[in-house]
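Illustration: Reverse transcriptase domain-containing protein.
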Amino acid sequence: MTQMNFGEKWRRWIMGCLESSKSSILVNGSPTKEFVMSKGVRQCDPMAEFLFTLVMEGLHVMISSAVERGLFDRVKIPNSNINISHMFYADDALFLRDWSQRNIANLARILRFILVDGLSEIWELLLFKVQDICARDSYIDNSIQEN
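Result:
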């Protein structure tokens, strides 16, 4: 949120909301003692979508920057002036391009950058989805593993 120019006060409010939440688990229909969440957000937490949107906005900025610098290519839609490199819907990310060695390597580098930002859970999810989609093509799968 710092990189997106959210103020200090706003960031403290968000962290306060995340750190002050307590949860309990139903065991055989009876709730356990409440405990403080140490990582992540609770299921159905109204802030989850907001925080996910912030993360995906960061990924969008990274992909767009890579496209502008020529590191990741776009797909031109036939009979139009529209060029697309990626699309997000709900919790899915779709990366569009000819899957050359260069594009795969650069996409893997972009996604790996998320680890540096401390967003390892999102990285693991995205890498799993990329590998799942590419599992049938060993060329793509090997490129992801090497980078």
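Reading the tokens back as a structure: The CA atoms of residues 37 and 140 lie 38 Å apart.
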